[in-house]
Amino acid sequence: MVAKHIKSLLYEHDCVIIPGFGGLITRYVPAMVHPVKHTIAPPSKRVAFNEKLILTDGLLINTIAYHNGISTGEAQQMVAAFVTQANNQLKTDNRFELSDIGVFRYNAAHRLEFEYKEGDNLLEASFGLPEISARPVRAEESVVLRTLQKNREQDVPQQGNKFKRRLRRVYSTAAGLVIAGLTGSALYMLSIQTEYNLSSLNPIALFTNATINNQAAASDYTSDYVPVSEEERLAIYQNLLLNANAATSDDVAFAISETDNSEINLQAESDTLAEVAETAVNEVVVEEPVVEPVLTVSERTGRFYIITGGYSRLKNAETGREAIRENGHDGKVLTPLKGSRLFRVSAADFATAEEAQAAMNEYRKTYGNSIWVLNN
Q1: Which residues pair with 311 in a beta bridge?
Q2: For the ranges 196-205, 254-263, 339-348, the one whose mean pLDDT is highest
Q3: What are the SPOR domain coordinates in residue numbering (predicted)?
């Protein structure tokens, strides 16, 4: 059961520590082309072992406790029993196999060695990508293919091309007949309408109708009509102007007084606006400093941090931090302490251990039971 949890954690984390035994570290391996098998392998993870990483970071124990519904103490006993079994098997058989991961052995200097066993692809980005076989291309194959294609083209009978030409000619003739029939039908339908005259489409008729209308307008007056002379028209206009001036003199005086008052009001409003503008220009704008959030902690602060995971590479740790900040929490990256190579990611920090422990239940709802508290 412990081996199964170790394998599942290697999919998501770069380092999984087995307390009292050592740490399994993964590294990225790009896609590879096998020169002999002629295959292309997708990107993957390769696992290495470091027997000096024996101090627990709580990841394996908390994961076992969470998935099995047991306490942390019981999970710690399960891990200790697993380590005891592995050490006993190494002493008796000089070999211990971690299923689907690798084999442990003692060398001549009685140092523990690890041999990675290539099995399932542990890289989540390559999930479902198979190994592709690529057959080498030979130069003579292109000549053979061209010869076969040429022979096939010669074997095709020419009757097919003649039939296509005849069919295309029939289609063109039928299309022309259909268009001519539709045009004739449209003209016939217009001609049988009593309220529509086809002669109105003639552009020359526009000029003819205009001439006829002008002649009709010229003959609108009767034979006994006598036009008004120019002197009589001027006398009528002068009488109208005198009456209009007498009626509107009082209105003009009132309008002038209104104009003077409006000019005084506009001058007062412009002076007020000028004073406000001058006051706004003389004011000094004080900009408040922008406080940037602390994203990386490189020194000891004495605070208590809720840790969600540990990474062997800074890039992966920063990715985990951004995911935490997207959830609305104060995600930070803690650089490795003395004697450690793990970059730890925290979701929150507190001044005392009691405050951190009190907030653990709330953060477990989002990040599970694998989180723990670290005094940095």
Answers
A1: 343
A2: 339-348
A3: 298-376
Between CA 88 and CA 107 the distance in angstroms is: 16
Given a contact cutoff of 8 angstroms between Cβ atoms, the answer to whether 24 and 16 are in contact is: yes
**Among all chains, which residue has been given the structure tokens 């507190």?**
350
Q: Where are the beta strands (DSSP E) in the chain?
A: 15-18, 22-29, 32-34, 39-41, 44-50, 96-98, 102-106, 112-116, 132-133, 296-297, 304-311, 332-334, 343-350, 372-375
What residues have CB less than 8 Å from 164, skipping those under 6 apart? none
| pLDDT tens profile 80-112 | 998 999 889 888 988 888 888 889 898 888 888
Do residues 46 and 73 lie in contact, with contact meaning Cβ atoms separated by under 8 Å?
no
- Region 191-215: mean pLDDT is 54
Contact at 8 Å (CB) between 129 and 39? no
Quick one: pLDDT at residue 191? 73
What b/e string do you get for 53-65 counting C-beta neighbours within 10 Å, with b at 16 or more? beebbbbbbbbbb
Q: Say which residue, 323 or 293, is predicted with more confidence.
A: 323
The domain 296-375: what is its CATH number? 3.30.70.1070
Q: How far apart are CA 239 and CA 242, in angstroms?
A: 5
Cα separation of 196 and 193, whole Å?
6
Query: Which residue, 58, 52, 100, is CA-closest to 75?
Result: 58
Q: Determine the pLDDT at residue 357.
A: 92
Nearest alpha-carbon partner for 343 in 354, 334, 353: 334
The whole-model pTM stands at 0.36
Token pair listed for 172? 């063109």
